[in-house]
Amino acid sequence: VQLVESGGGLVQPGKSLTLSCIVSGFTLSGYGINWYRQAPGKEREFVAYINTIDSTTSYSTSVKGRFTISRDNAKNTAYLQMNRMTPEDTAVYYCNAGAAWGRGTQVTVSS
Fold first, then answer.
1. Among 35, 39, 61, 103, which residue's Cβ finds the most Cβ atoms within 10 Å?
2. In b/e form, how buried is each residue of 1-35, taking b as 16+ CB within 10 angstroms?
């Protein structure tokens, strides 16, 4: 069982970035998918969730309206589209499915 995040990097404030989470070892369609993030000196916090059955979603208040979570079960991949980014979005972003976690991808928002 493995989750691998990618797509992180340095982005300017106001710009967009899309993260990917590729799943191997199990079928993504059987699990709800979460994105979490952890900023320096802070606890890991929930960012977004997508339901496995009907793809309903939920978001933290800090990202709602700016971030979009999605999934492609055929590709066993989940995504996090991040728009209108701010320096407060700087963190390591993690993908989670059931008890499995990825190692994270660093996102830095800075001019």
1. 35
2. eebebebbeebeeeeebebbbbbeeeebeebbbbb
